[in-house]
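Record passed on underneath.
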Amino acid sequence: MKPNFQNFRKRNLIFFFVTTCFLLFSCTNKNPNITKQELEKYLQAEMKKQQIPGLSYAIVLDGKIIDSGALGLANVGLKVPATLNSKFNIGSIGKTFTATSIMLLQRDGKLSINDLVNKYFDSLPANWNTITIKHLLTHTSGIRDYCQDHPDYPLISGATGEGLEERKIEISELQFIKLVTTDPLNFTPGERFAYSNSNYFLLGFIIQKVSGQSLSEFMSERLFTPAGMTETMRENVPVIVPDRATGYNLNDSNKLINGAYISNFYSSQGDMGIITTAKDLTKWIIALEGGKILDKESLRQMWTPCKLKSGFEPMDAYGSYSYGYSYGLGWELNCHNGYIENGHGGDFMNGFSAKFVHFPEKKLTVVVLTNLQPWKISQPGVDVYRIAGFYVSELNAIDQFQTASTADSSLNNIVYDFYNQLMSKGEFDTSVVTINFKERTNPIVKNLYTGKVPNSKTKIHVSCIKTDRMADRNLVRWGVLVKKINYYEITEENKTPTYMAIYFTTDNKIADISY
């Protein structure tokens, strides 16, 4: 019988194809294991340095959970290890759930985000008559906060320091409303941005009034169950919850202590009030992007920066995680290394800190939950950008970049002037920054930074580490086309270096910054 050379060639081609795929698959599958080892080595070092008792993390790429882990202790006294089942309080990340609940009710035709708040509450002061649900969602209402976020905006009366003693007390909804309506507003609604937890307390009350359900019932039915979040629940302090992690603080002597006791009322409202696992929280972004909760238009609205009466998007000057973020409907919005970042941070005085960041262009999400809230530091003790960089190198923390020979140092003097303007008075010269950047800067910047300018004898050194040219990216920040992003290390005598990404326009003005 004659050999069939055609079949022989086919078999060889198939063998070559399968073998090649196997080799490629084997090579690419080595990377996650190496990445996990490197990541956990970094996390363990940070946990030791920051005195974080326990930590859990999870990573989503292309809509799938690709990595997760738990380190340290869920309970220090009992020496209980943290596991993937350990449940942490996620603090203000809960605002993303509250905002989504409002958007669902709008879709149901039960409310509009443009409704006036006085439609849902009786006997509000006259100066509240123009406040809308959207003002609450975007922190532009002017309502005073019941705990401290902005040092230049007064708290509600009676809240001293961190308001700890007040938050140990069980009060009612009516008592809370009386508390927040007694004082005048910090500013006219829509005029400025100031993060205020009081806004989301009121949104939680509105959800319950409109739906006829408790927050726990509504979110379980409309959010947690559709998302497959079987380990997520609303906080209920007296209830025994399996695998609940214990929260911790650091005292003034930097010693680990038990987290503060916070009453069930203050622990369970719309500004926070959710406990979950890291893996379960990643299901939240998978469900949102997969259309299981909201339609695409509603999600787009949530991830679009709000606008003030002036028409400009606000820039927060005292953000909980970074200078310069904007806010959508329940989401912190930022740009990291030129890539859109949607997410939220959370920390709570009962001893927890958390961070949730999502990079839609890279289809990457990072979740980090810890059982430490060191009071003086309003962020987790680990860098989520550094974690992101283990999976997508472009998302690395700036101080991780190697100095490149192609780095453009021609604009160092402009950056030097900008840094001095920032640190001297918080006001910017439009020869250095765009008008959009200047106008969206929160007015309290100058109060935060006045007097902190380095004296004339202080040596400041500006060094460009890396340059990303945006010719093929069409990156627009606040209505202005960005030509390039320069990454800088700014060293000031006897101080830790500052790392900053600066977004330059075609005429070399600063359009945006990020850390």
User: Anything to note?
Assistant: Residues 1-30 have pLDDT under 50 and may be disordered. The first helix runs from residue 5 to 28. The first strand starts at residue 54 and ends at 61. Residues 143 and 185 are 5 Å apart (CA to CA).
